[in-house]
């Protein structure tokens, strides 16, 4: 009898190319419908992603390593032990430029205040999304 697969392939793809491509034993994704835990042999599914961290538990001998990826929305598709995340942008924790993310956070906070004073609700919403992305990157960078 064939041995059952206990891991799956996890890929994170952006318009700039593949950001992440490894085997994993568990993935935690934050979808628009709530948190989704993905294990090997999960039924095929597709879901929208929130701006949040993606957690991938990798099999490394007896010690399991966890990788974190800052994902800025997108979709997750699970199909035959292949988990594919397609996002506008994504960064692994080790690739995040913390000072750049801090500057983006400060810029977004300033833009929110300016847009509120000018009563520009669309600009407030855009700046809030920018702030959420910057905070997500800073949060994921702390896992290093």
UniProtKB/TrEMBL annotation:
- According to its record, how does it sit in the membrane? Peripheral membrane protein
* Residue ranges of every copy of the ATP synthase epsilon subunit C-terminal domain listed in the record: 95-142
Domain named ATP synthase F1 complex delta/epsilon subunit N-terminal is located at 8-90
* Localization per Swiss-Prot or TrEMBL: Cell membrane; Endomembrane system
State whether keyword Transport applies: yes
InterPro entries referenced in this protein's UniProt entry, alphabetically: ATP_synth_F1_dsu/esu, ATP_synth_F1_dsu/esu_N, ATP_synth_F1_esu_C, ATPsynth_dsu/esu_N
Entry keywords, A to Z: ATP synthesis, Cell membrane, CF(1), Hydrogen ion transport, Ion transport, Membrane, Transport
Q: What does this protein do?
A: Produces ATP from ADP in the presence of a proton gradient across the membrane.
State the family named in the UniProt similarity comment for this chain: Belongs to the ATPase epsilon chain family.
Write down the NCBIfam families for this protein, in alphabetical order: ATP_synt_epsi, PRK00571.1-3
Complexes and interactors:
F-type ATPases have 2 components, CF(1) - the catalytic core - and CF(0) - the membrane proton channel. CF(1) has five subunits: alpha(3), beta(3), gamma(1), delta(1), epsilon(1). CF(0) has three main subunits: a, b and c.
Q: What is this protein called?
A: ATP synthase epsilon chain
List the source organism.
Lactococcus nasutitermitis
């Amino acid at each position: 009898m064939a041995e059952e697969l206990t891991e799956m392939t996890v890929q994170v793809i952006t318009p700039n190319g593949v950001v992440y491509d490894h085997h994993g034993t568990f993935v935690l994704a934050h979808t628009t419908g709530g948190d989704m835990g993905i294990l090997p042999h999960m039924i095929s599914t597709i879901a929208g992603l929130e701006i949040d961290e993606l957690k991938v538990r990798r099999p490394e001998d007896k010690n399991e390593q966890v990788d974190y990826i800052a994902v800025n929305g997108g979709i997750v598709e699970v199909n035959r032990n292949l988990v594919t995340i397609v996002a506008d942008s994504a960064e692994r924790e080790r690739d995040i430029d913390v000072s750049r993310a801090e500057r983006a956070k400060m810029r977004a906070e300033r833009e929110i205040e300016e847009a509120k004073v000018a009563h520009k609700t669309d600009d407030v919403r855009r700046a809030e999304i920018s702030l959420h992305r910057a905070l997500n990157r800073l949060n994921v960078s702390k896992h290093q």
